Amino acid sequence: MKKRDIILVVSLLVFAGIVFLIFNFNNKSGKTVVITENGSTYGTYSLSENKVIGIDTDLGHNKVVIKDGKVHMEEADCPDKYCVDKGDISKTNESLICLPHKLVVEITDDEIISNNDDLDAIVK
Ligand SMILES: [Zn+2]
């Protein structure tokens, strides 16, 4: 094998490695669950903590379940049930949307640095 061929092979391997890293970066698991109700933040929750969140608004009822690093809509009394049918989400930027209830459950990779019920501070 010529030296030039070795350089070519190494370059290809490095390139493949970078592509692999980018792919993994885009598919990494998120850290934080952000629930938005009618355009304003309802709450932020850690994806690593199992939790059941009941959301009752004038528009209806939803039950969001965080379990084993995944989130799903356990219950909803919306007419279409798309949010329930969507199943588990766990990756950054994935979301569960309940249009009839104007509810969005989104996963971000922001870290929650303080988590009390009145004010959730998140840092990018
Ligand atoms: Zn729904």
The low-pLDDT segments are: none
Biggest sheet overview: 4 strands, antiparallel
CATH homologous superfamily name of the largest domain? Answer: N-utilization substance G protein NusG, insert domain
Bound molecule types: zinc ion
| Estimated helix fraction | 10-25%
Kindly report the average pLDDT value: 88
InterPro entries: NusG_2_sf
Keywords: Membrane, Transmembrane, Transmembrane helix
Organism: Ruminococcoides intestinihominis
Transmembrane segments: 6-25
Structural description of this entry:
The protein has 124 residues and is α+β, with helices and mostly antiparallel strands. It has two domains: 1-28; 32-123, N-utilization substance G protein NusG, insert domain (mini-chromosome maintenance (MCM) complex, domain 2, Sandwich). The chain contains two helices and nine strands, in the order αβββββαββββ. It has helices at residues 3-26, 82-85; strands at residues 32-37, 40-46, 51-57, 60-67, 70-76, 95-98, 103-108, 111-115, 120-123. Strands 2-1-7-6 form a four-stranded antiparallel beta sheet. A three-stranded antiparallel beta sheet has the order 3-4-5. Strands 8-9 form a two-stranded antiparallel sheet. The mean pLDDT is 88. Zinc ion binds next to helix 2. It comes from Ruminococcoides intestinihominis. Pfam families: NusG_II. InterPro entries: NusG_2_sf.
Name some characteristics of this structure:
three-stranded antiparallel beta sheet, 124 residues, alpha+beta, elongated, 23% helix, 2 helices, binds zinc ion, four-stranded antiparallel beta sheet, mini-chromosome maintenance (MCM) complex, domain 2, 9 strands
